[in-house]
Design brief:
The complex is a heterodimer of chains A (about 170) and B (about 900). By secondary structure, chain A is mainly alpha-helical. Chain A has helices at about 1-15, 45-55, 65-80, 85-100, 115-125, 130-135, 140-150; strands spanning about 20-25, 30-35, 40. By secondary structure, chain B is an alpha/beta fold. In chain B, helix 15 crosses helix 19 (about 560-575) and helix 22 (about 640-665) packs across helix 24 (about 705-725). The chains are: A mainly alpha (about 170), B alpha/beta (about 900).
Chain lengths: ~170, ~900
């Protein structure tokens, strides 16, 4: 999974030459092999490295604060979201929903590395949600839908139908 | 910039050490573990860095990286990699191992951690630099050092040699910044400080368990891990054996004599449960939220020998009652009488043991409310103002707050009520609502002026804050209660209207405001006082006696501000030495099978239906208390209820108690045999004593759900004890074996008596049944729950027990399925009906048409006229106060016309899905 995700990320970043990856351990942690430098372990570390390689510092944040917020969400992805217990999923969605209430992107006012990585990590969860649940976590689904339509992000994942248009608002009754 | 940290939390050690090293200027605030700093996270998380931009950093490693960067140092890729390893690999294994050692008292740490530590050891032994990645300590060094700090504490984890790791650990630890922060976080208390932190964390999954599919619905309930045996010290074991042999008087039990009044030198506890509103049947969420929770605490307190009074009653005034009366063709008083009786019988069935269950529509209520009013008026805490109020011209009356709905002016929630928004929780003035609608006729109300009185909350804010600080410091306030109260104060208090243009209420005695009544939220909490006054003339001994009385308020979280801000302000302003709340216990919400309880949709179990399920009241109590929404919302689930009944009550608790009793009657002719305690028995006594002590500590702090876990742990210990010793085999052996069987049986049956005492607050009938079956002396519970708890031998050798029979019944899958269907709401039925009837013009609420409906402008015009005409007809009928059935029929026609109109206009007549939430 993580490997396909990294390959999608490479495309999103516009990296021409694909890197070589392997995985290690039961959790299939990705490892970036390189001939010229020591190998790198861990999705967040590799993704950050790739963004630097692609000369996309904008994706890593323009200020120290922004960089910290982006790193925080990368860590959240790998430490909280990946492999979380089933009963934690609702809490995660609830928290994200509250966080995204007044936000378009996870960090700052433009896309950052945190957005595609959280999108990849959440995809299987959002796929499993019922329509009512998608409505319940409205801000998450709005952000998610935005991400899957953002040029160059989706790649290896199937699109998820997230919202039905309600023809009526409740005001008409 | 501000950094929030707590004691004993290794993550806080990380950030404090890095802060010190980086030299970045930043305020540091020490808070307790349950402080919710980050508004969007549901679980309290620390440390937190509040950035100058207003954003929150809640990941300790991100905070560390940020502080390093601000001080001009970059995080290298290697360092970054270690940080990720720490967060994803080391932390889960470490938390699991520390939890086993510090909380459960186990000595061996987890295997998974060993592998990780040896990985670190290898890396450190091969390195060529002084520290992990460089010649100086980088951010990764500090983070790993702090993470491992608790593991290297004295009596911490048993970890192997790890030579390189140790010398690296010491090299980091001697840095002054690390030394100072370790002192500041662990305060020299070592493992104890860590334990305090770990206990507040959700029980960690083992690293392997993480990927396993865990059962949904078990979240939020007390997680009883099978391997939670705590290792007892020799002293604890000897002490437990001594307590067991104490001679005690189990015969004389203190009796309850009414009226109960405060007594000097005793612990006087006054317990109130939020007054349920009279015009509705309470649902399970209402029951667990207030009356049942308070009942458990009250029963427990009585066992502990506190001098305790538990009062409650129905809240009867207000427009909702007036309206219900109009609906049912009765007077408001008749409605109150009718529903008061319904409430009383429901609580009786649930065995809620009030000392007095009263009501608010009494002469006492008028006297006390008016007295408080005059006192506030004399002291200048009331101001007069003209208010713009919403009036519905169709219904010809001023609209009470809950009869207006509209869009919340703060958060745009479309179904905000006139007094408060359910979504953002802010208070609203009904006239500020956008797009207001009369809830009854859906017309837009007009704004009219009327003169009203206001409680001057800003003037009282100072004394309120002073008192709150004391009450927060000394009492038990649930975290949500503290947070809600703080957020109210942070937003600043505004004058609050206490009068209303209604009839059904306590009259305002002021001549300038004749014909008005008190606003229900000024009036209702005074009900606590007046209900007590109806119980005893000497009510002031409870309510004007803050020196000797401790007041506990139980409620659901939506009620908090009225009990922590508004009502205390009324009492503080009245300046009559009133007893104010010391401990405020608020629950979160209970949902029904992941949706909300809804009377109108018939979703969920309501108080009066519970007894029709055939499931005993005690089992209902047990399950509701087992999932009591502490800390976060919980959901009632039939499948889970059956599971908990069958696994916990039947197989664990009931099985143990029944076996213990059966051994006495089958093998020893119903007479308790002689006990010769061996080392193993003493260890069991110590284990049980330890659980009992936990139970008492938890219930003293009103941690009702967690304390229930201790009971289940004891019977689990008991089952294992019987299983290992096999008395049914030993009874057939020689003298030594027979004696052993006797000891095991006698210890077990005494444990059953202890369990009956601990169960009393939760399952009173079961508790009584156990005592009757074992013919236990009356005061055993009382004795066992004194002090820190005493597991004494209360059924000595020679005691005759009664007839033993099973306590619980299995809940079968079919039974549960049929109950689930019965209480699942009408939605599924509606779908079926609509699918059966090929009527395309009336799609049901649950069916969303996939294709847009075609519009027909000509038909729409005709229908619009018909709707207008029918609407006039309905309004006319309502104005004439026609019979309900007649109006209902015409309204149905109107709705059908509106639906057709919508279709003709090409709109989707699907009502919004939130519609049904309203009750």
């Amino acid at each position: 999974m993580a490997l396909r995700e990294l390959s999608s990320l490479e495309k999103f970043l516009g990296l021409k030459k694909p890197n070589k990856y392997s995985t290690q351990g039961d959790r299939k942690v990705p490892v970036l092999q390189s001939n010229s430098a020591p190998s790198l372990v861990g999705l967040g570390t590799i993704a950050t490295h790739l963004a630097q390689e692609a000369k996309r510092p904008d994706l890593l944040g323009a200020s120290a604060e922004e960089r910290a917020v982006i790193q925080q969400w990368l860590e959240y992805r790998v430490a909280r979201l990946d492999g979380c217990a089933k009963e934690d999923i609702k809490t995660i969605l609830k928290d994200l929903n509250a966080y995204l209430e007044d936000k378009v992107y996870l960090a700052g006012n433009h896309i950052s590395l945190a957005d595609p990585l959280m999108y990849y990590g959440l995809h299987h969860i959002i796929t499993d949600l019922a329509v009512q649940e998608k409505e319940k976590y409205l801000n998450v689904t709005r952000w998610f839908d935005h991400m899957q339509h953002y040029p160059g992000v989706r790649h290896h994942l199937p699109p998820v139908v997230v919202l039905r248009n309600r023809v009526y608002t409740s005001g008409h009754h | 910039m501000k950094l929030f940290v707590s004691e004993g939390n290794p993550h806080c050690l990380k950030v404090l050490a890095v802060l010190e090293i980086s030299g970045v200027k930043c305020d540091v605030q020490h808070v307790n573990h349950e402080e919710k700093v980050v508004p969007f996270l549901s679980r309290p998380t620390l440390p937190v860095l509040h950035l100058p931009s207003g954003q929150f950093l809640f990941s300790p490693n991100a905070i560390c990286q940020y502080l390093f960067e601000v001080s001009g140092k970059q995080t290298s890729k290697q360092s970054h990699q270690w940080l990720e390893w720490e967060a994803t690999e080391l932390q889960p294994a470490l938390m699991h191992a520390l939890h086993l050692v510090a909380v459960q008292g186990k000595t061996d740490s987890a295997k998974a951690l060993e592998a990780l530590l040896s990985f670190l050891e290898q890396n450190l032994s091969k390195k060529t630099t002084a520290f992990l990645t460089a010649e100086t300590a980088e951010v990764a060094d500090i983070v790993l050092w702090a993470a491992l700090y608790p593991a290297f504490l004295e009596n911490g984890l048993k970890i192997g040699e790890l030579k390189s790791t140790r010398s690296w650990f010491e090299a980091v630890g001697v840095m002054p910044a690390c030394k100072a922060s370790a002192q500041s976080v662990f305060k020299g208390k070592g493992l104890e400080a860590l334990k305090g932190y770990l206990q507040k964390q959700p029980a960690p999954h083992g690293p392997q368990a993480q990927h396993k599919d865990s059962h949904i619905g078990s979240s939020g309930s007390p997680a009883e891990s099978e391997d939670s045996d705590r290792v007892m010290t020799q002293e604890e074991i000897e002490a437990a054996a001594q307590i067991w042999n104490q001679k005690i008087d189990c015969q004389s039990k203190p009796e309850r004599k009414h009226p109960i009044l405060p007594e000097k030198g005793k612990r006087n506890v006054l317990i109130t449960s939020a007054l349920p509103y009279v015009n509705n049947v309470p649902h399970l969420g209402n029951i667990i939220g207030c009356v049942l929770s308070a009942d458990v605490f009250a029963r427990y307190g009585r066992q502990r020998g506190w001098n305790l009074l538990y009062i409650c009653g129905t809240d009867e005034y207000g427009t909702a009652t007036e309206n219900k009366a109009r609906e049912e063709g009765l007077t408001p008083q008749q409605i109150c009488d009718k529903y008061h009786a319904i409430h009383t019988s429901i609580y009786k069935w649930f065995q809620i043991d009030f000392d007095f269950f009263g009501r608010t529509t009494t002469q006492r209520q008028t006297e006390i409310a008016q007295d408080i009013f005059w006192r506030l008026n004399e002291r200048g805490f009331l101001q007069e103002d003209t208010v713009e109020q919403l009036r519905c011209e169709t219904c010809e009356r001023f609209l009470a707050d809950r009869f207006v709905e509209g869009v919340c002016p703060f958060c745009q929630y479309p179904e905000a009520r006139g007094d408060q928004c359910d979504k953002c929780g802010r208070l609203i003035n009904a006239v500020e609502l956008k797009e207001p609608q009369c809830k009854v006729c859906k017309q837009t109300p007009v704004i009219r002026c009327s003169k009203h009185l206001f409680l001057d909350l800003p003037k009282l804010e100072g004394s309120l804050e002073q008192w709150l600080e004391r009450s927060f410091g000394t009492g038990d306030w649930t975290t949500n209660a503290r947070n809600i109260t703080r957020s109210w104060l942070r937003d600043g208090l505004k004058p609050r209207c206490i009068t209303r243009d209604l009839q059904w209420g306590t009259p305002v005695p002021h001549p300038d405001f004749a014909g008005k009544v008190f606003y229900v939220w000024f009036d209702a909490p005074i009900g606590y006082l007046s209900i007590t006054a109806n119980y005893t003339d000497q009510w002031e001994k409870w309510w004007k006696n803050p020196q000797e009385v401790e007041l506990y308020n139980f409620m659901a979280k939506d009620n908090v501000p009225f009990h922590s801000v508004v009502f205390p302000c009324s009492l503080l302003g009245a300046q009559d030495n009133y007893t104010l709340v010391n401990s405020l216990i608020a629950t979160e919400y209970l949902n029904y099978e992941d949706t909300k309880f809804s009377k109108s949709r018939g979703v969920g179990v309501f108080g009066d239906m519970a007894k029709d399920t055939g499931i005993p009241s005690d089992v209902w109590r047990f399950y509701l208390l087992y999932l009591r929404p502490e800390g976060q919302d919980a959901a009632f689930s039939w499948a889970d209820m059956a599971l908990k009944n069958n696994s916990e009550l039947l197989n664990n608790l009931g099985n143990f108690i029944n076996r213990a009793g059966m051994f006495v009657s089958k093998f020893f002719e119903g007479v308790v045999p002689q006990v010769t305690l061996q080392e193993e028995d003493k260890r069991l006594l110590a284990q049980v004593g330890w659980e009992l002590k936990q139970y008492i500590q938890l219930l003293d702090k009103v941690r009702i759900r967690d304390a229930l876990k201790c009971i289940l742990n004891i019977s689990r210990h008991g089952n294992q004890y019987i299983q290992v010793n096999e008395p049914w085999k030993k009874i057939k052996g020689g003298d030594t074996d027979r004696q052993r069987a006797g000891t095991v049986t006698a210890v077990s049956v005494n444990m059953a008596v202890l369990l009956s005492a601990m169960l009393e607050p939760y399952m009173p009938t079961v508790s009584e049944t156990i005592r009757a079956q074992l013919q236990a002396p009356p005061a055993t519970s009382h004795v066992m729950l004194q002090g820190e708890g005493n597991f004494v031998c209360s059924l000595p050798a020679g005691h005759h027990i009664g007839t033993v029979s099973p306590l619980f019944q299995k809940l079968e899958a079919e039974q549960i399925e049929s109950l689930k269907k019965r209480f699942g709401g009408q939605q599924s039925q509606t779908i079926n009906q609509n699918n059966a009837a090929p009527k395309p013009s009336a799609p049901s609420a649950a069916v969303v048409p996939e294709t847009p409906v075609k519009a027909d402008p000509e038909l729409a015009k005709q229908l619009a006229a018909a709707v207008a005409e029918q609407g006039d007809k309905v309004r006319a009928l309502k104005a004439q106060k026609a019979e309900k059935a007649v109006i209902g029929e015409e309204v149905a026609k109107l709705l059908e016309l509106k639906k057709q109109l919508a279709l003709a206009e090409g709109k989707n007549p699907e009502p919004s899905p939130q519609k049904g939430k309203k009750k």
